[in-house]
Amino acid sequence: MTLRKWKSGGRFEEVASYSRAKRIGPFVWIAGTTAIEPSGRIHAPGDVGAQTRYILSRINEALGEVGAEMRHVGRVRAYLTDLSQAGAFAQAHGEVFKGIDPVLTAVQAGLTQPGLVVEIDVDAVIHDQNGKINGF
């Protein structure tokens, strides 16, 4: 069975003892991801659409680090500071996941820093184009 963990170098990963991405067999989990750039700056403060696109690109990178792809994502959870901005989130999400169509939950929540307006986590299962999981 495959066991892989990946840490992105985020400031809380070591303190809180967690991984950005974890894979056990064909199952993959990506931790809640925000629009904080490697420099520590917030990407596009207050812009739901731009932050969503940026976060999903970071999630794509994390998936790749453990051998998965966006097409393997089965569930997306999004936390928005203001649900009245859900349209901008939905537009950006739809651009990235067109044809993949994962299940989606969006809720309103407070985030850790002013300017952060979206946090996203995903669950994935590595499978072939017919949905077959190797060994199952």
From TrEMBL:
Documented EC number(s): 3.5.99.5
The coiled-coil segments of this chain are none
Q: Which Gene Ontology molecular function entries are recorded, alphabetically?
A: 2-aminomuconate deaminase activity
Q: Which gene encodes it?
A: amnD
Keywords from the UniProt entry: Hydrolase
Gene3D superfamilies found in the cross-reference section? RutC-like
What protein name applies here? 2-aminomuconate deaminase
Q: What class of enzyme is it?
A: hydrolase
Q: What PANTHER family does the entry give?
A: BLR7761 PROTEIN, YJGH FAMILY PROTEIN
